[in-house]
Specification:
Elements: H1 2-17, E1 24-30, H2 46-69, E2 77-82, H3 89-94, E3 103-107, H4 116-119, H5 122-136, E4 147-152, H6 160-170, E5 176-182, E6 193-203, H7 207-211, H8 222-234
Parallel strand pairs: 1-2, 1-4, 2-3
Antiparallel strand pairs: 4-6, 5-6
């Protein structure tokens, strides 16, 4: 009767809400052909970089296939953003999973990463890709994910999916999620740890607030900006 129907609808809502009410996307940033004078770039050969990204995508896809095989649902969508307008067919082939919509690839040509923009550093170039990817991604568009976790594209982090599941349960109202390591140096204004920039999570729409201030030309690297944003939040900003 009506009571059983209401209970069924309630069970369905509970199942959908299990694990929190935030939809996460993982955004992988990549540059196959880096600018010649880009900061903090060790590997510059495009062919080697493309192969590295392909191996990383294969690792993410294999992890997703294993999780799909165990019946896991609501895995975060992965958005791969490349800023040189390169052909990504090999990466698409490497990303095959049961859910054909698990991966989305966005490739564009950032013509402004030169001159003064290069001087602002690798983190600022990455921010431009992040902003473009979010704006032009179906997964991150209206009605899509409301939390973004950016991962530098050469990294595969097996535990990240489980960590995102924990965040959905326990940190539903998070604005900024950062990683830290023990401070091995006596750094000015540091309270015991170093904020890293390879993996950063945030509420969608806060990209400019997080990344815009990065400028290595004046001694403000991305790690410094993240530390300042954390301090703002801790102080109620």
């Amino acid at each position: 009767g009506g009571e059983e129907e209401c209970k069924a609808q309630e069970d369905e809502r509970r199942e959908k809400d299990d694990g929190g009410n935030s939809n996460f996307c993982i955004l992988l940033t990549a540059t196959i052909c880096p600018a010649q004078n880009m900061t903090h770039t060790v590997r510059r050969q495009p062919r080697l970089r493309a192969r590295e990204y392909e191996r990383v995508v294969e690792s993410w896809a294999e992890s997703y296939r294993e999780r799909e095989g165990r019946g896991e649902k609501e895995l975060p969508k992965i958005i791969f953003v490349e800023n040189g307008n390169n052909n990504l067919d090999a990466l698409r082939e490497a990303s095959r999973t049961k859910n054909i919509n698990a991966f989305e690839f966005v490739s564009w040509h950032d013509t402004k990463i030169k001159g003064g923009f290069v001087a602002r550093g690798k983190g600022f170039a990455e921010y431009r890709s992040i902003a473009y990817g979010i704006k032009n991604s179906r997964a991150a568009g209206e009605g899509g994910c409301d939390m973004i976790v950016k991962v530098t594209g050469r990294y595969f982090i097996p535990s990240l999916i489980d960590e995102i599941a924990r965040l959905r349960r326990e940190e539903k109202d998070a604005t900024l999620i950062v990683q830290g390591t023990e401070n091995w140096w006596n750094m000015h204004e540091n309270d015991g740890g170093v904020v890293r920039s390879e993996v950063v999570g945030w509420k969608k729409g806060r990209e400019e607030w997080i990344y815009e201030g990065q400028n290595e030309a004046i001694g403000v690297p991305m790690e410094r900006v993240l530390a300042l944003r954390v301090r703002e939040i801790e102080q109620g900003g």
